[in-house]
């Protein structure tokens, strides 16, 4: 996986990447106040006295946020620190009313863990790589400055101010833009499984600081730069590419990389220096005296543990071993929360309808969920009303198909009508004539006719011309107006032709 | 009958309850007295109507046969560090001039609930930083006390709760709230001949109290006797979920359990508090105080608090460090003063606002605090000071094996003259030498007036107790009060 190389004038270079991912914790209220956290509300409509840092206001820790961070750590098999503490990171900015951010520098809540990533999640043969997680800590988000509301003044919106974030700090274990992308995708999937973050990068629920350095393969780490607040996987990969290229060119031109904070300009596709180490802030971290150290009880930890869902890797393994799905299907179905949830629902409803075990119908259901149904939805495009796309409807179609009442082609047609109209599949099959017959005597009568009408071909077939079998099937189906169960035609023909 | 303004908390409350007089009469008497005491500069804001309204509510409740609170009918002064809904709250700083909080501090709210009324907001050292009240942006408070040399030299009422101490000593109110970070209740109480109690850290909620140093700030009562303090502390204390450092412990009925009988009590005398160059009168009073406690049934034991000499330097690192961060919110963006010079950017607005809004002492402490937290110095100062703090706590824990309460002087001198020490911050800081250890250890401590010095100025003795053992502190304070029979009061020169 790590054969990504940058070609320079002096030879090949390797890129070293570490990511600090800021994930907004899904919680109803903020980390230290009761204000709401809804996205897209009126500016300054979700600001408590604490968020606005009024005199004498004090932070009170939201236990739900702690729980989510612990659950996230557990999902990464990470060390959960029974003792952690909040520190103040001091700096002045108009989006930071307190004049400090409450964070965890010295004693984070979660220590070392790991995330196993696959470069191509949908390719079961793709190599896996373990990316180390250094730590996860909890901290407050800042507010937002609005510069376009007034010709000479900036406005401040404090709605985000105080919202809980997890900062998930990786080790410098990634070696290519693809690995960085795969890591963030896997992280997002994990967070969404756990339910600790909605992973919505467009709304800023997840963003990354991208640390990049370059070196000749086998050398010591080079000097790194940190590109702040990158808000999509595509941009993260782009930052790695352009920043690595920039560093290689710089070094080869006789320059040196300086440790600095950079910004990504997505429009121009380049990174720009924001501030160097020399004029970096001195944040004067110290323990927040308004908050007691956070000590987690065994009871709290067991609660967190018990509330964890089955995680992606375990689920994928179970789909293969218990449900007998192919590695590919298992990988795709477990890649994100929506796909496994809708699959498991469909599987359960269909198994109920058919009175069969989930294992027995898993492969056909997966086939429907991953290939047949998406094909129909894609071909319909805008015409599909996805609110009609229920597990109940799909299960009804699968049930008719399993009973031999409809063919595969009819199943697709019925599904198409369901998506357009929301009508019942059984009613569609009946009124639209989308049914096939499994009536053996009717089929047998037609077969007899076909064979009687084509004695020469029967002779030739019996003489060894096997390909004619298809001809008989076709003729029979034609006589049945396409509505006979092809399996039954096959079986009967084989009997008759001996 | 005694004049209302000579009455204390218990006398007023009991008189109102028993129908001897109306709460409104009491409020009117104190309002009138406050109005005539402008020369003391004790009040930053007077709120006579609030005092009357609260009194009327109590009178009506009594007439209706309703339940009366523990402070019913008692008008009090509120240190202007407590945010009071709709009443200007400035912490005696220009940076908060005109700030009217839309919320009430927990402690003031509890007092109003207990039936107290507010006479006004009391002056203090700016952001509670100071030991003389001279750092207030609105002029210093003048102590009602004068030396007995016939002169009219103006004296400090102590600090930071100097408005509170002066107002209680001058009978402008029967009691007032104070806050104590390194001695800000005890030292002004000692300077003005009144009683003050700093409870265990966490007893009183800090919610709505303008923060100075969060790990040390603690509210407490200031009144003219121990019983009044016990009553008022009962109304102020209690767990508050809005303050994470608030103690979730039951609040005992200190007033009911108050007893000056110290039989079986062991009183520790810490030898390290006998500092070089100590005022002979204070040393003498200290020994006398020990004798009085002995007379009350206590045994006197020598104890050692070996790290005492490091307490003051540690305090002057920890408190400014926290203050430098706590005061970052006064930036001119959302409330309070904003100084926006022509064409200034954000950084320049911060600089101009804070330069104009903070006083010299506040700036000095912000500078010290910023320095001790800065990269490269943090370990040498803040980390080291935190360790000292742990050692000081340990000293006390060790001492509790041998004693139940500790007796020490409150301050190294009697009240000094205003202006005498302003140019010498270090000497000023030394004034906190006896009060700071109990603050660093979060222990309950009181100051009780124990006598007058040769100049006719009050001197106080300090009692320090175990965590959550306010009762023993109060009991020993009562015994001292009973045997000191301190009844001196300042000559009324200010009206």
Widest beta sheet: strand line-up of chain B: 4-6-5-10-11-9-7-8
The total beta strand count of chain B reads 11
- Proportion of residues in helical segments of chain B: 25-40%
- Based on DSSP secondary structure assignment, what is the total number of beta strands of chain A? 16
Question: In the CATH hierarchy, what is the class of chain B?
Answer: Alpha Beta
Helical element count of chain A?
A: 15
Going by helix content, strand content and strand pairing, the class of chain A is alpha+beta
CATH topology of chain B, by name, is Amidase signature (AS) enzymes
Q: Give the overall average pLDDT of chain A.
A: 93
Structural class estimated from helices and strands of chain B: alpha/beta
How many helical stretches of chain B?
A: 16
> Greatest contact pair?
A-B, 30 and 44 residues
Shape, per Cα inertia axes of chain A: elongated
The ordered H/E elements of chain B are: HHEHEHEHEHEEHHEHEHHHHEHHEEH
> Which regions of chain B have little confidence, pLDDT < 50, spanning 5+ residues?
none
* Rg of Cα set of chain A: 30 Å
- What count of domains describes the coordinates of chain A? 3
Describe the protein in words:
The complex is a heterodimer of chains A (498) and B (495). Chain A is 40% helix and 18% strand. Chain A is of the alpha+beta class and 498 residues long. Chain A folds into three domains: 6-303, no CATH class; 312-431, no CATH class; 440-497, Arc Repressor Mutant, subunit A (Orthogonal Bundle), CATH 1.10.10. In chain A, the strands form four sheets. In chain A, strands 1, 2, 6, 7, 10, 11, 12, 13 and 14 form a nine-stranded mixed β-sheet that branches. A three-stranded antiparallel β-sheet of chain A has the order 5-4-15, with no helix packed on it. A two-stranded antiparallel sheet of chain A has the order 3-16. Chain A is elongated and about 95 Å long. Chain A starts with 5 loop residues before the first strand and ends with a helix. The model of chain A has no long low-confidence stretch (mean pLDDT 93). The longest helix of chain B is centred in the C-terminal third of the chain and has 22 residues, at 378-399. Chain B has an eight-stranded mixed β-sheet, with helices on both faces. Chain B has one domain: Amidase signature (AS) enzymes, CATH 3.90.1300.10. In chain B, helix 5 (162-169) runs parallel beside helix 6. Chain B has 16 helices and eleven strands. The model of chain B has no long low-confidence stretch (mean pLDDT 96). Chain B has helices at residues 9-18, 23-35, 48-63, 106-113, 162-169, 186-192, 226-236, 254-257, 280-295, 311-326, 346-357, 360-373, 378-399, 425-430, 436-441, 470-484, and strands at 43-46, 75-79, 117-122, 175-180, 195-198, 218-223, 266-270, 299-303, 405-409, 445-452, 458-465.
């Amino acid at each position: 996986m790590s054969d990504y190389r940058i070609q320079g004038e002096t030879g090949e270079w390797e890129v070293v990447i570490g990511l600090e991912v800021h994930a907004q914790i899904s919680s109803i209220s903020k980390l230290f106040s009761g204000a709401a956290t809804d996205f897209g509300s009126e500016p300054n409509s979700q600001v408590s006295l604490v968020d606005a840092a009024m005199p004498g206001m004090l932070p009170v820790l939201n236990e739900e946020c702690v729980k989510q961070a612990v659950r996230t750590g557990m999902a990464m098999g990470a060390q959960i620190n029974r003792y952690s503490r909040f520190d103040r990171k001091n700096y002045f900015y108009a989006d930071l009313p307190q004049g400090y951010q409450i964070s965890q520098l010295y004693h984070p809540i979660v220590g070392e863990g790991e995330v196993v990533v696959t470069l191509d999640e949908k390719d079961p043969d793709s190599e896996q790589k373990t990316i180390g997680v250094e730590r996860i800590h909890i901290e407050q988000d800042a507010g937002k400055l609005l510069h376009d509301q007034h010709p000479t003044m900036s406005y401040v919106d404090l709605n985000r101010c105080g919202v809980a974030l997890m900062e998930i700090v990786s080790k410098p274990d990634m070696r290519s833009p693809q690995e960085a992308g795969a890591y963030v995708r896997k992280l997002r999937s994990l967070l969404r499984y756990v339910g600790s973050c909605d992973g919505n990068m467009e709304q800023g629920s997840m963003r990354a600081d991208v640390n990049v350095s370059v070196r000749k393969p086998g050398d010591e780490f080079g000097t790194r730069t940190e590109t702040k607040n990158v808000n999509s996987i595509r941009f993260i990969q782009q930052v790695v590419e352009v920043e690595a290229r920039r560093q290689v060119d710089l070094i080869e031109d006789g320059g040196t990389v300086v440790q600095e904070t950079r910004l990504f300009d997505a429009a121009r596709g380049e990174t720009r220096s924001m501030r160097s180490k020399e004029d970096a802030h001195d944040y004067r971290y110290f323990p927040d005296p308004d908050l007691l150290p956070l000590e987690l009880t065994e009871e709290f930890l067991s609660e967190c543990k018990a509330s964890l869902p089955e995680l992606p890797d375990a689920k994928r393994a179970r789909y293969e071993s218990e449900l007998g799905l192919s590695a590919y299907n298992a990988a795709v179905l477990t890649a994100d929360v929506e796909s496994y949830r809708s699959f498991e629902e469909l599987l359960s409803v269909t198994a109920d309808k058919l009175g069969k075990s989930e294992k027995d119908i898993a492969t056909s259901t997966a086939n429907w969920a991953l290939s047949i149904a998406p094909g129909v939805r894609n071909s319909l495009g805008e015409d599909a009303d996805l609110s009609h796309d229920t597990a109940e409807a799909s299960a009804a179609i699968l049930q008719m198909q399993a009973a031999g009442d409809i063919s595969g082609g009819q199943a697709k047609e019925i599904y198409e009508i369901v998506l357009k109209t929301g009508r019942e599949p059984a009613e569609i099959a009946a009124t639209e004539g989308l049914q096939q017959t499994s009536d053996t005597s009717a089929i047998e009568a037609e077969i007899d006719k076909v064979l009687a009408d084509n004695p020469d071909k029967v002779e030739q077939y019996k003489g060894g011309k096997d390909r004619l079998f298809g001809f008989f099937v076709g003729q029979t189906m034609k006589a049945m107006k396409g509505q006979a169960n092809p399996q039954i035609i096959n079986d009967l023909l084989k009997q008759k032709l001996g | 009958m005694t004049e209302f303004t000579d009455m204390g908390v218990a006398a007023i409350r009991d008189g109102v309850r028993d129908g001897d007089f109306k709460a409104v009469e009491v409020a009117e008497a104190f309002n009138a007295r406050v109005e005539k005491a402008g020369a003391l500069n004790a009040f930053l804001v007077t709120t006579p109507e609030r005092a009357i309204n609260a009194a009327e509510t109590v009178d009506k409740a009594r007439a209706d046969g309703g339940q009366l609170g523990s402070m019913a009918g008692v008008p009090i002064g509120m240190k202007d560090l407590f945010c009071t809904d709709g009443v200007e709250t400035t912490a005696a700083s220009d940076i908060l001039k005109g700030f009217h909080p839309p919320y009430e501090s927990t402690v003031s709210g509890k007092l109003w609930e207990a039936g107290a009324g507010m006479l006004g907001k009391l002056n203090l050292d700016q952001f509670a930083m100071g030991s003389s009240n001279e750092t207030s942006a609105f002029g210093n408070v003048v102590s009602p006390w004068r030396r007995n040399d016939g002169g009219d030299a103006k004296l400090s009422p102590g600090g930071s709760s100097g408005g509170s101490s002066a107002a209680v000593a001058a009978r402008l109110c029967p009691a007032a709230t104070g806050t104590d970070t390194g001695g800000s209740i005890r030292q002004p109480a000692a300077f003005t001949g009144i009683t003050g109690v700093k409870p265990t850290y966490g007893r009183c909620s800090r919610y709505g109290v303008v923060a100075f140093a969060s790990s040390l700030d603690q509210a407490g009562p200031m009144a003219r006797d121990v019983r009044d303090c016990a009553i008022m502390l009962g109304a102020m204390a209690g767990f508050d979920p809005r303050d994470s450092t608030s103690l979730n412990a039951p609040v005992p009925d200190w007033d009911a359990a108050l007893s000056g009988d110290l039989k079986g009590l062991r009183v520790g005398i810490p030898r390290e508090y006998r500092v070089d160059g100590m005022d002979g009168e204070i040393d003498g009073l200290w020994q006398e105080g020990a004798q009085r406690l002995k007379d009350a049934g206590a045994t006197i034991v020598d104890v050692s608090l070996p790290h005492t000499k490091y307490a003051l330097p540690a305090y002057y690192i920890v408190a400014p460090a926290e203050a430098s961060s706590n005061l970052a919110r006064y930036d001119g963006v959302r409330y309070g003063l904003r100084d926006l010079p022509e064409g200034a950017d954000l950084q320049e607005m911060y600089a101009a606002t804070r330069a104009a809004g903070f006083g010299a002492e506040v700036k000095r402490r912000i500078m010290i605090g910023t320095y001790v937290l800065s990269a490269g110095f943090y370990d040498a100062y803040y980390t080291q000071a935190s360790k000292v703090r742990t050692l000081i706590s340990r000293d006390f824990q060790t001492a509790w094996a041998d004693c139940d309460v500790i007796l020490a002087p409150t301050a190294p001198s009697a009240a000094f003259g205003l202006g005498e020490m302003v140019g010498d911050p270090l000497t000023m800081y030394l004034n906190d030498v006896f009060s700071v250890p109990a603050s660093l250890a979060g222990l309950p401590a009181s100051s009780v007036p124990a006598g007058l010095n040769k100049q006719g100025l009050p001197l106080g003795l300090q009692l320090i107790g175990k965590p959550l053992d306010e009762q023993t502190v109060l009991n020993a304070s009562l015994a001292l009060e009973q045997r000191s029979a301190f009844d001196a009061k300042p000559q009324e020169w200010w009206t």
